[in-house]
Amino acid sequence: KYTDERDNSIGYSVTCYCICSEGQVELFDNEHTTYKSIDLNGVEAMLGTSQNFDGSTSYYLLYEKDEMHYSIHGNVELETILKVASGIK
Questions:
Q1: How confident is the model at residue 89 (pLDDT cuts 50, 70, 90)?
Q2: Which positions ≥6 away from 12 have C-beta within 8 Å?
Q3: Could you read off the pLDDT of 66-87 as tens digits, one per residue?
Q4: Which is nearest to 50 in space by CA: 86, 81, 16?
Q5: Residue 1 reports pLDDT greater than 50
């Protein structure tokens, strides 16, 4: 986390875990977040967008690749979230 020019605390988080054969659950905030399917370098991903109380925007990027599940979220620019996702090998 760091502070932007308006003294808002901003940052992002990355979570990665193996996809289990028994199944898994990913919870979505459907009341405050709008989700859409996007292409992330040839992989289908879900991108969530929500407005925060301070006027900033938070993004939630969820996708599966090579038997791994990835979740990246934060209140940084969307380009930063996509750059982080593109850097995961």
A1: confident
A2: 72, 73, 74, 75, 76, 80, 81, 84
A3: 888 888 988 888 999 999 998 8
A4: 81
A5: no
In this prediction the pTM is: 0.75
Token output for 76: 């940084």
- CA distances for 75 relative to 7, 21, 37, 71, 89, angstroms: 13, 32, 19, 14, 23
Length of the chain, please? 89
> Which strands sit side by side in the sheet containing 68-74, from one edge to the other?
12-18, 68-74, 57-65, 43-51, 34-40
